[in-house]
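Good morning N.,

You mentioned wanting to compare the apo and holo forms, so I went ahead and generated the holo version with nicotinamide-adenine-dinucleotide. This is what I fed in:
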Amino acid sequence: MTMLQSFDPATGETVWEGEIAGPQAVSAALLRARKAFPAWAALPVAERVAAAQRYKAALEARKDAIAQIIARETGKPMWETRTEVASMIGKVGLSITAQAERAGDRQSAMPFGQAVLRHRPHGVMAVLGPFNFPGHLPNGHIVPALIAGNTVVFKPSEMTPATGAAMAECWAEALADHRHVFQCIQGARETGEALVAGHIDGLLFTGSAGAGAHFRRIFADRPDVILALELGGNNPLIAWDSADVDEAASVVVQSGFITTGQRCSCARRLIVPDNAFGAALVDAVAGLADRIVIGAWNETPEPWIGPLISDAAAQAAKARFAELVERGAKVIRPLNGVEGRSGAFVTPAILDVTGIFVPDEEIFAPVLQISRVPDFDAAIEAANNTRFGLSAGLISADDALWQRVLVEGRAGVVNRNRPTTGAAGSMPFGGLGESGNHRPSAYYAADYCAYPVASFEATDASGNSGALAGKLRA
Ligand code: NAD
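and this is what came out, ligand included:
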């Protein structure tokens, strides 16, 4: 029996230990999910909605415990993990509304009877989750998929199995009679590979762009498998003008450093004018970054950010940082460890990369790369100079510049005078280019969880011969 463990990145303490699902266990879970599908899909949607409401109640009953589990596994402070659990709870109502609005039944009268639009579930959905929002993000696939009538086999990130297990407990309570409708299997990439290679009708994935590209290739010739990919980015934030430099710096710091830079929507690239405002803003951002409280999830005063997910993640980020410095980047704030802390802790870093070649890669850590540009044309060009297109932002009071960003920018989330990480479950969330595959999640998840069926319907066959009248041989 091979075991999986998760650890608190702040202390190295073991948080969870359990069995890894090998290929046979994965096949067995998929078979159970397939057997459970017809009865679940045949239920009236109101019954599946009722199950989702029971899941919501189960989450509510455990909300503090789940917030703590997420905090321990990811290192995120409790203020943030409480928000994450609140989003999970809120997802149920949003998904019910979205399902009705985007994937509900519609009918309109026709001369012969009626035209009816219905939505049908795909079947067995595999869900693979990331570590950074280990509850909220897979939840954003699972809830709409189940309401639509699919069955789900979910593999949480190998870094956050306890969060997945807590979600499974809530679904078990909600689904009592339909317990194989949702199953959680644990393991790392090999378990994910077995799941993806199994008999599935959809893969709903939130994770890295590299894994997403791999799945696009695997399923290139499988139009029968629905693929929804929510991937990373190399997100630009253009900070062009602000009457209040400190307010602008707050937007930048929140965009770049929240969740220790481990949000897919974090700004990685700050584009500023090469003038006095640009210089003042960079100073203000560096000053604010100095004052960020960093600590473990259960410390007082409560930190704003915790460690990275692991020592290995910190080492990888430091290697990327060193590579940029070697290429000629100027260090404004280094990516240092924190004295007396585990190796997963890092300080937010700022580099000036103006004029040097920088690989178009996501650094999933608090590393902000500044480019100084001569004019707004150059700013837009720099912002769009990426193969990704997840989030982007503009700090400016100038409506004309905002219009230019809206028209010329290429990203799925484009914010103005707000952090690039600002997003709502009542809106779609997804990216262009290598950030996804045009199947945005959040409010639009209902779209990829069911396929539309269009029907012309008459109660009997009368009235059809008229179309052939006069065009038939005697
Ligand atoms: P990851 O791609 O390493 O892993 C995500 C999940 O996929 C895990 O469960 C992992 O075990 C599994 N997996 C990875 N490779 C696999 C393979 N070849 N076959 C089968 N399963 C595989 O991602 P991560 O490090 O957990 O998460 C961080 C990444 O996710 C960042 O790139 C971030 O930008 C991205 N992300 C995107 C969004 C979004 O909504 N667009 C949201 C959050 C995170």
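Residues 3-231+436-457 form a domain with the Aldehyde Dehydrogenase; Chain A, domain 1 fold (CATH 3.40.605.10).

Happy to go through it together on a call whenever suits you.

Best,
F.
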